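As agreed, record minuted below.
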Amino acid sequence: MIRGLILFLWLFLPLNLAAEPSSAKKLEAVRGEISTLDKNLNLNKKTQAELQQQLKKQSLKVSEINRELNKLKQSIAVKDDELLNLQLEQGQTEQQQAQQLEALNEQIRSAFMNAQPSYLKILLSEQSPERVSRSNTYYRYFHTARQQQIEALQTTLLNLTEQEKAIYAVKKNLGDLEQQQLAQQEALKQQTAERESTLAALNKKISGQDAQLSALRQEEKDLQSLLNALAKKAAQRPPPAAAVKPNARFSGLSGKLQWPLTGKILASYGSQRNLDKLSWKGILIASDKGTSVKASADGRVVFADWMKGFGLLIIIDHGEQFMTLYGNNDSLLKNTGDTVKAGDVIAQSGDQGVRQIAGLYFEVRHKGSPTNPIQWLRKQG
């Protein structure tokens, strides 16, 4: 009996003792994998945050370059008009010069054809003093008139010279502006390429459905927080000195709002976003890159910056706790604090895409809650 027990212990005890280190190693390995996954997850979140910051920086740079380009285009248009007016003035001056030369030549030809005698011949002739006096007066008038014509011609030539100098200066200025424009376009091309690369890398990071859903929920949460903060600030501002006319209030503009831009609706308010139960809180309007985005109503810009999920975003406060949002822009042409009128150009639409969909994103909010923009906008066409 004892011999059997000893044999049993001799056979199985080493196996149990050997099993304990093996389980400990497996547990340690699992803990190691969990630690590695945590590190990778944290690194992935950090990488996403870095990419978001990089995208924000690049988008704002693109907006700045686009704004400079817009100013340069306006300056070039002004210089083109100035050059055209100077060239028209020069043409009129040249025509005036030709008329003056023709008149002077005609006078000289007339004097030559009539072969007027000199003053000395008239004095030595046997003509009466009265006739000599009349002839003397005639030649004095003739000389004075010719002198005035010569002076007028000299003034015209001087004007032509000044106009030519002005035209040269405008052309030089125009050339400088066009060179600046080319340089800005090159910078824009480079920044746009960098932004597209960053956007592609970011989209790759959140390509999974769960990741996209999480990102969208966070974006909506961030936007709601921003709107709440803006509404709080708006409530703290003093009321306008003059009372707003009833017909100018936003609440009375249902079905009358100007479209921010004309285009096909790519995503409707309330439609599903193919991710869980999330729906669109606004509308997405198809547009080409660089299309002018206009304010739908009078108001004050309370936000003009980049925001995750919405790109370059402008928010306008219209009073009565109404706000309109214009997202996914390529450049912002207004700053926070600017007052705008309905129809003012506030931005240029982009093609970076809200979730890979190009077009302008537009919302109408009341007390922070989204409302259907179509009910506010006038009918297109």
Q: What stands out?
A: The longest strand covers residues 322-332. The chain has two domains: 57-203, 208-375. Residues 2-114 form the longest helix (113 residues). Residues 1-20 have pLDDT under 50 and may be disordered.
